[in-house]
Amino acid sequence: MTKVVTLGEIMLRLSTPGHLRFTQAANMGLSFGGSEANVAISLAVFGINAGHVTAFPHHDLGDAAIMHLKKYGVDTTYITRSDDRMGVYFLENGAMQRSSRIIYDRFDSAFAKVNRSMFNWNEILRGVTWFHWSGITPAISQGAADVCLDAVTTAQEMGITVSGDINYRRNLWQYGKSVRDIMPGLIQQTNIVIGGSVDFENCTGVTADSFEEACLEMTRKFPSIRKIVNTKRTSVSSSHNRMKGMLFDGQRVIKSKRYNMTHIVDRVGTGDAFMAGLIYGMLKGFSDEQALAFAMAAGALKHSISEDVNLVTVEEVEALVKEENVGKLLR
Amino acid sequence: MTKVVTLGEIMLRLSTPGHLRFTQAANMGLSFGGSEANVAISLAVFGINAGHVTAFPHHDLGDAAIMHLKKYGVDTTYITRSDDRMGVYFLENGAMQRSSRIIYDRFDSAFAKVNRSMFNWNEILRGVTWFHWSGITPAISQGAADVCLDAVTTAQEMGITVSGDINYRRNLWQYGKSVRDIMPGLIQQTNIVIGGSVDFENCTGVTADSFEEACLEMTRKFPSIRKIVNTKRTSVSSSHNRMKGMLFDGQRVIKSKRYNMTHIVDRVGTGDAFMAGLIYGMLKGFSDEQALAFAMAAGALKHSISEDVNLVTVEEVEALVKEENVGKLLR
Amino acid sequence: MTKVVTLGEIMLRLSTPGHLRFTQAANMGLSFGGSEANVAISLAVFGINAGHVTAFPHHDLGDAAIMHLKKYGVDTTYITRSDDRMGVYFLENGAMQRSSRIIYDRFDSAFAKVNRSMFNWNEILRGVTWFHWSGITPAISQGAADVCLDAVTTAQEMGITVSGDINYRRNLWQYGKSVRDIMPGLIQQTNIVIGGSVDFENCTGVTADSFEEACLEMTRKFPSIRKIVNTKRTSVSSSHNRMKGMLFDGQRVIKSKRYNMTHIVDRVGTGDAFMAGLIYGMLKGFSDEQALAFAMAAGALKHSISEDVNLVTVEEVEALVKEENVGKLLR
Amino acid sequence: MTKVVTLGEIMLRLSTPGHLRFTQAANMGLSFGGSEANVAISLAVFGINAGHVTAFPHHDLGDAAIMHLKKYGVDTTYITRSDDRMGVYFLENGAMQRSSRIIYDRFDSAFAKVNRSMFNWNEILRGVTWFHWSGITPAISQGAADVCLDAVTTAQEMGITVSGDINYRRNLWQYGKSVRDIMPGLIQQTNIVIGGSVDFENCTGVTADSFEEACLEMTRKFPSIRKIVNTKRTSVSSSHNRMKGMLFDGQRVIKSKRYNMTHIVDRVGTGDAFMAGLIYGMLKGFSDEQALAFAMAAGALKHSISEDVNLVTVEEVEALVKEENVGKLLR
Amino acid sequence: MTKVVTLGEIMLRLSTPGHLRFTQAANMGLSFGGSEANVAISLAVFGINAGHVTAFPHHDLGDAAIMHLKKYGVDTTYITRSDDRMGVYFLENGAMQRSSRIIYDRFDSAFAKVNRSMFNWNEILRGVTWFHWSGITPAISQGAADVCLDAVTTAQEMGITVSGDINYRRNLWQYGKSVRDIMPGLIQQTNIVIGGSVDFENCTGVTADSFEEACLEMTRKFPSIRKIVNTKRTSVSSSHNRMKGMLFDGQRVIKSKRYNMTHIVDRVGTGDAFMAGLIYGMLKGFSDEQALAFAMAAGALKHSISEDVNLVTVEEVEALVKEENVGKLLR
Amino acid sequence: MTKVVTLGEIMLRLSTPGHLRFTQAANMGLSFGGSEANVAISLAVFGINAGHVTAFPHHDLGDAAIMHLKKYGVDTTYITRSDDRMGVYFLENGAMQRSSRIIYDRFDSAFAKVNRSMFNWNEILRGVTWFHWSGITPAISQGAADVCLDAVTTAQEMGITVSGDINYRRNLWQYGKSVRDIMPGLIQQTNIVIGGSVDFENCTGVTADSFEEACLEMTRKFPSIRKIVNTKRTSVSSSHNRMKGMLFDGQRVIKSKRYNMTHIVDRVGTGDAFMAGLIYGMLKGFSDEQALAFAMAAGALKHSISEDVNLVTVEEVEALVKEENVGKLLR
User: Fold this and answer.
1) Is D175 an 8 Å CB contact of chain B?
2) Are the C-beta atoms of D29 and E20 separated by less than 8 Å?
3) Three-state SS sequence of chain D
4) E242 reaches D (C-beta below 8 A)
5) CB proximity E274 to B under 8 Å
6) Do A99 and C303 touch (CB under 8 A)?
7) What span, in angstroms and rounded, lies between the C-alpha atoms of B35 and A169?
């Protein structure tokens, strides 16, 4: 039975209703979100056996976060609990030309305080097919970086496919290490990389004239990399984006069709939805073109769904790939 | 005094808030909807004396459904009550490329259990000018089909104009009869037909190369038909549709201008709004072109209104026909 | 320290939720709005020292209106209180081709009953740099017109820049005077006029073949006028407008770029947001082009914000002027 | 077929959510209320044929007010429409020791501007059994007082039972007449009076040592009076009241049992609910004791229902009279 | 590892907000509820390994019901899916003297259509310690009664403790069998019975002068019964109940202290909360007095919690048993 | 002009709606609260010139917190801004026997990181009459304790009355100092102490057999203390408390009447409301009995008001002191 394990922080998500500004809101929508957990939930909704590893405080909001994962069928066995706080992010949903804004309040969270003694990766990864991490985790704290390195190392030793979303978050990396101190060690044990030219440069120093050349250079430098994927987004406005995807298969870059996303409901987590779609496609043995198409359709659909997670089924994604029933009223 | 009578089931409408998926919603908007009742309410809001015939359970939600009709001025004198259940439909309002979805839960409702002894059409139709039915009613149960046939037969005998929306719902028709067993008998006592080529084929077997030829064939086969109208919709997305209308006047097809409907608020009931507009125009003696234009503007406006019914006035529809004050801030 | 003073009525704003019609709403959003106060609040949010002069009833809703101003930092020292009622406006937010609608209920309000003895303009305007009024105030009552005239006269005597939004509201002007009885006296003590050709004709009888010629004629007739600004709006639908701005600098008309505003959240107060942007730019010594660009960007952003007031910062307006971060997700 | 007609103003009711204060609320519940219309609606819900006479503005909120009456089955045939405003009342729902508060904004409403030429009482009262008015109507304006006098005079001439709730509202009576100028003329054509000793003194100058003696004096002075009813309320807190009722049958005072009303949901309209219960009992030929018991139970139940109107059935009132199923979970 | 399995229908719960009547509500709270599943969830929240067996439709609301169980950690492995409908119950939350009301709409549900071939109880009950059923299940359909009989028979054969809540629902039992045809066969394989004298008589014909004598008679007739528990409720009003509990230990009746429950938030599911508390106490080896005290405290706390399930921890129940921190503000 | 200055942290308050548990809530009410700021706002609403000193982050939620203070008229001139986080508290509002619960998330906030160089107390306290602090501030961090000590020292030097609420929060005091290291130094510069025997012992080691004796001992040990006040609360349940107040006037203890508070809306901030009432009474020169009575009535009323702050007027408090209009419907 296929099993995917993801690692990363989950925060309380508090978002203003509709398009209200922070200074207008009298209440906030409460949910939970975190890049890697969003991937795990999307995969679970696709029917894939998925588990998530993280740390939560002992209090009721920690319980609520676990219930969020359980509700969608994600295995929470290896989540640790502590007396620390829970990370929070506050979201103001923009509209038209006005940008959306996130205020992060995630320092000193239970996840930031993890250490390698808390997780036995040989046990966690037993029977697992795929492990996924992102560049957020090593940016949070030395402990989180250590845990991430343990995980990818153990995964590679066990022959598990490792994917990494190497996005670089400038506001993190405040614990004394720089991105280039840490990321290369993780990337060299990663098989599927999500990232673009800017990420390559930030994380590894690799630069090139084109995405394809950068990918070639990355795979030369990090031979474990089998594929590199990326999405390119144009923001016409907060309500209207366009997005296309690229997949480097080790030799060349395949491009997806471009999606035109007007009337965006929630832009957060769309990259995670793409990632989950890609993992799904690869687990199911799709061709690279098919996997990219599936990932793009999954990512596009996420823009229509409130909160962080992509609550769409495989059937819905496949219908969009085939352009069936787009925007219909299905009775 | 002009009076229009409609016949058909009204269901409880339970819709998720905003664009939430069924699995996200902690509450649901509660309203009522049913194709033919939507037509009656729209006509009542236009100032036409209208009544609706249906059946509800005795309990408080049945009372609430009657209040829904009364609120807008629809005569509820001939509604029967029973101990059966109320049909329900659950609506998830899509967005962007994600389709809207309806889960029907309407079997064994009070309306499905009607029988011809419950309705005295000679009394109900006294003083009435127009009777409207749809293809949903005969698809529900033998009892409902019988009642519908009684109604159209009596109406024709009394010289009342009969309109029928002959849409074919594949998920209904589960009581042992097929659509072609029943519909021809109803259509041959109908003067104004709403339907397209697919409906003609499903209901009567008539096929042709074009809508105009199909209409000609329909009127040959069913001489009672005076006019046939239809709308053609393009779904760019759940949030953006385009729609145009056609009216066959017995000889040729007249086409309306095309409406571009971006930022759709609620797509349900837009066909009923079109139908009510058409009946209004015909009752008021509009030319075919004018009646079609009025119907199209009414249908377009409905896309901007939450819930099933088209709460717009004649003045608002006429302004859109004339392209006056479109999208203005009227003080 | 720069100080702007505005004068005008503030009404209770009661708006239907989402796009519900008046006949559908079971509750209403409660806020406050008034053209000139909207300008003051926007300026206060920009960091400008601003005060507003008006009249409210003694009751708790009057208190709430004062709290609305104080919340955003507007000085409320010179607001008078009486036993009269509070003006109200009811707003139905349109969508697509359906227009938005306002029902005004503002007669006999505390503001309508002001008289010149209530306000000591020499005291109110001490240390003030800019005074702003609009054509709504003199249209309400003789008392309000008197107070407005006192204010502009005192302001001009004290060397304070006076701006006036000379929009003509046909439904007001019911106290016995006509617009041309009153407005010329106010305009001739005004330095910055906001208005278009229709306003010029309504208020002063000035007509011309083009906006530029009309402006030239206005400045000939009213030598105190230094600049005239105007916005031109195209309503594709209630959800989609286009807007461009014009500034007559005494000799010629400068035009802004055109903004395309799809997915409009709230159109009310967008002109006031433009006005506040213009005053900000002029107070800060921007060139005419820069001031117009700032005003336009401020006005465009307001379309994305619920309720009357433009809760955007100078940084956000400047970013839109430079087309930076438009519609991004800012973390 | 029994028919009750009531006369009086209906206002827009805007209430803060839960127990929020006016200065806290970001939205308001919207409904409609007016003492006499509340009586009519309660009677209609009891199954009595009832109609209401009033005046509304032409705008959409006037339409909404009519829909409010129609929803519950009240006949709205004789409602006039004008270009005047709609009365509004703002409600802050207290809790515990904190009182509830109403801010009235009802001057110059469409109803205040009625005049006797607008209503043909001979037509309106044709086939009517009972007419009900309250002391609010003659307190509003000369026109309203005139209309009320016409109505009661015509009703008495036609042999229709007239009931009047002679409550004295100190804040009204601002049009030049005093309560004692007007009320005696109305009371002398009234058969069933609702009021207590304070009302008697305010309206007619009658004083006495006890309620019974005051009633005797009232019937001596106004021979048309057949019965006088009153309720006596003890406010332990906004959330907890006690209430008992008294009925003077022409000779002596009958007392009801006392209701203990903890956990009050909405206290507004409870007197109107009592009144409707009394009229119902009398129309149905109940004994005085029974009618009073029915009225009290109706009034008590209203405290559990949000908004102005008493949405309870005859069966529910009768069950409370018999103390059956009190506070149970009925499946 | 202790495991409890429960069997029974779960319905969609649609409840009016606050204390609104069915005819007032514009939306409804959406949740899920069913007596036996409520027991399973409460046990899972207490930390007991629990699973629930039922049937749901294939559609998204069936998915949502499963997510409801998973969220709280209940095992859903043995839930079957079909194309049938989902049972619904509509709840109007009473207040004061006004009763709460439930409208059931549960006929022909997926659960009503189960048959014995769908469930392999030898597999389902492997490793299980306790099985719980209620009198609702055999009342729904022959299929449900068969499945229930299979379950208790298998459980008894496997030495598993069986508890049964033998409440008699008069509105069910419509499939041709009477309660006395079916219930004795189930009770004779049950060890812990929840029920009172009325239930004994309805289900088995046993009558006696006191609860204790009735219990003695029940254990004589059904030797498998080890204990009988019951709660006795006094409804002062919908907002205020009193409740005490009784436990027959095979020889005598033990009584709990009485709880005074003012300010009730939600009365639904309080019996299920009591049941879960009792099972918890018995599983943990509490004395009968302790188990009853724990069950009563659990049941009392449920009255403070919205929706069907008792979201309280063991620590909270124990604190109430000890009367610690009752009604405090815990920081 | 009287001016009161308060010092202390303000946190984001996020509370579950109604009585929902943390694990049920899909959204949270957003407001702001902090003991000392609650006192300042209550005083401002009473018409007292009040200012608050604290520290907020630079981001929009910091702006919103400032707007919260400004809205009610509190001077925010001396609030500092930093790049640190904002403290948060999560509130679950209990009901009946279920306790309310607060989860604090306040470590490392902008306020916790203040230091004495940030505040010039000679400037801040110029023209000030009263300074108020609480035991929370010195418990947060060394910096906060230092700032508090500076403030009270400067205040005493300037002859300003100092009040201190010396409540001991066990969960704070984590920065290395114990409560007895710090509190005595603050208390010896305080004139009005709020606290009970437990606080005296925790903060200073003073113990005695009665509150009066303890007060005598406190004033002997800390001669600056002029008065000591305390409230005693009995929690019947979360929905029903009783409270009485005591004031030690230097010689003996005066007791207030006891308030019975059923149907509690929000218990948070009731002690702050009491404190504000006491300061108001003392500033206005009330006798000790009057000041205590005013404080108690203010505290009792707060239980009826949602969120942290006591939005009641002096007139309302005085009416409750006199037992006028308690729980009435004021029109």
Assistant:
1) no
2) no
3) CCEEEEECCCEEEEECCCCCCCCCCCEEEEEEECHHHHHHHHHHHCCCEEEEECEEECCHHHHHHHHHHHHCCCECCCCEEECCECCEEEEECCECCECEEEEEECCCECCCCCCHHHCCHHHHCCCCCEEEEECCHHHHCHHHHHHHHHHHHHHHHCCCEEEEECCCCCCCCCCCCCHHHHHHHHHCCCCEEECCHHHHHHHHCCCCCCHHHHHHHHHHHCCCCCEEEEEEEEEEECCEEEEEEEEECCCCEEECCCEEEECCCCCCCHHHHHHHHHHHHHHCCCCHHHHHHHHHHHHHHHCCCCCCCCCCCHHHHHHHHCCCCCCCEEC
4) no
5) no
6) no
7) 53
Query: Which DSSP letter does residue B304 get?
Result: T
> Which residues on D lie below 8 Å from F262 (Cβ)?
96, 237, 239-240, 262
DSSP lists the bridge partners of residue E51 as E5, E75
Q: Are B56 and E60 in contact (CB under 8 A)?
A: no
- Cα B323 to Cα C246: distance, rounded to the nearest angstrom: 27
What are B237's two structure tokens?
Answer: 């997305």
From the CB of residue A80, how many other CB atoms can be counted at a distance below 10 Å?
15
A4, two tokens: 């995917």
Report chain B's mean pLDDT, rounded to a whole number: 97
Name the strand (E) or helix (H) holding C90. strand C88-92
Q: Which of A60, A67, A69, A71 is most worth mutating to test chain E (most E CB atoms within 10 A of its CB)?
A: A71
Distance from CA of F74 to the nearest CA of C (A): 10
**What residues contact F162, with CB distance under 8 A and at least 6 apart?**
F130, F131, F132, F133, F152, F155, F156, F189, F190, F191, F192, F224
Q: What is the pLDDT along chain C (331 residues), one digit of tens a residue?
A: 689 999 999 999 999 999 999 999 999 999 999 999 999 999 999 999 999 999 999 999 999 999 999 999 999 999 999 999 999 999 999 999 999 999 999 999 999 999 999 999 999 999 999 999 999 999 999 999 999 999 999 999 999 999 999 988 888 999 999 999 999 999 999 999 999 999 999 999 999 999 999 999 999 999 999 999 999 999 999 999 999 999 999 999 999 999 999 999 999 999 999 999 999 999 999 999 999 999 999 999 999 999 999 999 999 999 999 999 898 999 8
Query: Which class for A108: exposed (0-12), middle (13-18), buried (19 or more C-beta within 10 A)?
Result: middle
Min Cα distance C326 → chain A (Å) is 5
Do D72 and B72 make contact, defined as CB atoms within 8 angstroms?
A: no
F64 has a chain D CB within 8 A of its CB: no
Q: Which of E263, E301, E306 sits opposite F24 (nearest CB)?
A: E306
How high is the pLDDT of residue D1? 66
Measured distance between the N- and C-terminal CA atoms of chain C, rounded to whole angstroms: 34
Partner residue opposite A26 with nearest CB, options F30, F59, F85: F30
**ipTM score here?**
0.95
Taking an 8 Å cut-off on Cβ atoms, the answer to whether B67 and D71 are in contact is yes
Run of H or E including B184: helix B179-187
Distance CA B182, CA B178 (A): 7
Say if the Cβ atoms of E63 and B23 lie within 8 Å.
Answer: yes
What 3-state DSSP class applies to A86? coil
Q: How far apart are CA B301 and CA C99, in angstroms?
A: 10
Which of E23, E95, E240 lies at the smallest CB-CB distance from D304?
Answer: E95
Contact E67 A67 (CB under 8 A): no
* 3-class DSSP state of D237: strand
**What part of C 198-237 touches F (C-beta under 8 Å)?**
none
Q: How far is A268 from chain C (nearest CA, A)?
A: 8
3-state DSSP call for residue F241? strand
| E27-33 vs B27-33, strand pairing mode | antiparallel
Scanning every residue of chain E, which has its alpha carbon at the shortest distance from the alpha carbon of F238? E327
